[in-house]
Amino acid sequence: MSLEVIGMAIVIIAIMLVIGKWIRLKVPLFQSLFLPSSLIGGFLALLIGPEVIGRFGGDFLSDGGLFTASIVDIWGELPGLLINVVFASLFIGFVLPKPKEIWQTGGPQIALGYTMSWAHYVIGLLLAITILTPLFGLNPAAGALIEISFVGGHGTAAGLSGTFEDIGFEEGYDLAIGLATIGMLSGVIIGMVLVNWAARRGKTTTLDHPKDISVDQKSGVIEEQNREASGVQTTSPVSIEPLALHVGFIAVAIFIGYLILEAFVWLEEVTYGQTFNVYLFEYVPLFPMAMIGGILLQVFLAKFDKRKLVDRKTISRIQGLALDLLIISAIASLSLTVIGDHIVPFILLALAGIISNIVFFLWLGPKMIPTYWFERGIGDFGQGMGVAATGIMLMRIVDPENKTPALDAFGYKQILFEPMVGGGLVTAAAIPFIIQFGSVPVLIAALILMIAFWCLGVFHTGKMKPSDKKPD
C-alpha cells in the first residue's frame, strides 16, 4: 500500500475519534453511561464500513462501505503496532516506590486482581474442554480468550493477532476483539449500575448519592478554571521538541524489547527447541517485551539521567493517544461475519467473563480489601472487564477528590500485575503453553494459582492493618 493510503487511513480514524466525542457531547445517554469517545467512534466506523453498510449498499459501497477496503485493512494492522507503544510506556518516568509500600497499599488489589485473572483462565479452559472444542470445533486456545479480551482488552487481543495466525486460529483475533468490546461496554454500563447501587445503599463513603457525579465527569470536558497542564517541557524546542524526545524514549524501549524477543527466539531454537520440539517464544508477541524494554530503560534513566529529561505526564499522553487510536481502529476493522459464525461460543465466553467479574467483585471485594472496599475494588472490576483505563474511570467517578487510597493502590497494583497478566508475560505465553502442553495441565496450574491468591486475599490482605487516609 502507498504511504498516501496509510496517511489517509490515519486521518480518517482520527476524524472518527473527533466525531465520537461530538456524539458523546450531544447524546445525554452516552454521557450518563460514560462511554469512551473511542468506543463510539469505533462503532460508527464499523457501521458505515464494509461489515454493515457495505453489505447493503450495492456495488457502489461493496468495496469498503464508505471507505476503501485498503483503508479498512490498514485499520486492522494499526492495533498490533500501537499496543507496543501502550505497553512500552507503562513504566517510563514512573518512580518505583519501596516494595513494602507497594504491598502495604496495593496488596489487596494485587490479590483480588490476580484471583480474577486466574479465574478467567479456569472458567475459559473449562468451557473450551467441555463445550467449545468438542461441540463447536474451536481451537483449544479459545480457553484463554476471556483473560486476553476482558483484562487485556483490545490492545492485547490485537497484539496477539500474529499468535492466532501462527497456531491456525485466525478467527480467535476477531472473537477476542469482539469480546474486548463487549467487556469494555458492559464494564462501563454495569460499573455505573454498581456505582449507583453503592451510592444508594451506603456502600461507598465518598459518594452519598448518584447525583453527586459532576457535570464535568459526565460530559468529559473539563471546565476552563479546572484545567491542568498535560505535561511539562523538559527540553528546549530549539534543541529538540519535548514531545519528539519522549516519542524517541518509547521507540528505544520498543527496540530493546525487540532485541530481547529475538534473543529468546534464538536461544530457544539452539537449545531445547530442536531437542524437544517445543517452541514458545516464536508465538510470543512483541508488546510484553516492549514493556520489559520500558522497565530497563527506566532503570537506566533513574540512575544516569541527572537532568530528569522524562516527564511522566507527557509519556501518559502519548500512551493515551495510542490507546484511543488502537480501540477505534480495532472496532472499526472488526469482522462481524466471524462472530456471527461462532455466535454461541462468543455468547458463552462473554457471559462467563461478565458474570464471574461481578460475582468476584461483590463477593471477594469486601473479604480481600480491608477498608474502602468499593472505592478500591471497583477499579479491579473495571480492569477485569475492560483494561485499566475503565477501572481508573470508575474510581474517579466514585472518588473524584481522591479522598481514599484507591487510585494509589491501583497504581501500585500495576507494578506487580501488568508485567504478568492483563497483557503481560503470562497472557502472551498462555496460548503457546496450551498448544504445546494441552489445556488440562494449564487448567490445573491456573486453578492452583487462583486458589493461592484467593487464600492470600481472604486470609492475609483482607486482615491487613489499615494505613489509609480517612475521608475529610
From TrEMBL:
Keywords: Membrane, Transmembrane, Transmembrane helix. One of its GO terms (biological process) is L-glutamate transmembrane transport. InterPro entries: GltS. PANTHER family: SLR0625 PROTEIN, SODIUM_GLUTAMATE SYMPORTER. This is Sodium:glutamate symporter. The chain crosses the membrane at residues 6-23, 35-58, 78-97, 118-137, 175-199, 243-267, 279-301, 321-340, 346-365, 415-435, 442-462. GO terms for cellular component: membrane. It comes from Shouchella lehensis. One of its GO terms (molecular function) is glutamate:sodium symporter activity. It holds the Pfam family Glt_symporter.
